[in-house]
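Example S7 (structure tokens).
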């Protein structure tokens, strides 16, 4: 881009909230290239972290999102309740408030790692809820020590793949027999 650092919307809001708690970003004690934010240490994202092999835009302190897993997500309040003053006293105090729409017509919905699993209904997350997830993760890590998602080093990941490849090959080698080979050659022909 332009060589200037850019701060995400979620991080900007989290930093404002954390400043009121006397928490400011600083170089991490474990490594000065890492960012310390309260109890959390953010390390720079690498081009081969996780499934992002040879990622081009890997600079900065991007994090893997550990989505908040709740059926309704975060507490929501309708605009009608706000406009008519039907809010419990103090509900909005000392909180980060995001204003956004969850109207399907806006098409501001996304799939996440928690959008649904086998046998569950697939649920997309609205853009405003996605931002709330990001903020929740940053604050949870900085204030409560909630662990951030981490990836294995490349050698450890390669070792894991090789071990399970060897186990798979050993199982296939052990189970080979003329009967199994005959059955395996018959199955595709029957389809």
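Recovered sequence:
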């Amino acid at each position: 881009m332009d060589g200037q650092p850019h701060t995400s919307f979620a991080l900007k809001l989290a930093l404002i909230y954390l400043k009121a708690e006397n928490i400011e970003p600083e170089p991490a004690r474990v490594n000065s290239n890492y960012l310390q934010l309260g109890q959390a240490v953010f390390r720079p994202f690498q081009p081969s972290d996780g499934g992002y092999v040879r990622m081009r835009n890997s600079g900065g302190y991007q994090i893997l999102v550990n989505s908040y897993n709740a059926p309704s997500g975060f507490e929501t309040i309708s605009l009608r309740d706000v406009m008519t003053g039907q809010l419990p006293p103090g509900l909005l105090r000392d909180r980060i408030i995001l204003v956004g729409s969850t109207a399907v017509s806006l098409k501001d919905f996304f799939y996440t790692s928690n959008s649904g699993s086998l046998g569950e209904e697939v649920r997309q997350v609205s853009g405003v809820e996605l931002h709330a997830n990001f903020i929740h993760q940053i604050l949870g890590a900085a204030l409560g020590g909630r662990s951030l998602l981490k990836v294995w080093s490349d050698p450890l990941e390669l070792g894991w793949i090789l071990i399970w490849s060897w186990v798979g090959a050993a199982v296939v080698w052990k189970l080979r027999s003329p009967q199994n080979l005959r059955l395996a050659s018959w199955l595709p022909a029957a389809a």
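Notes on this example. The chain has a mean pLDDT of 80.
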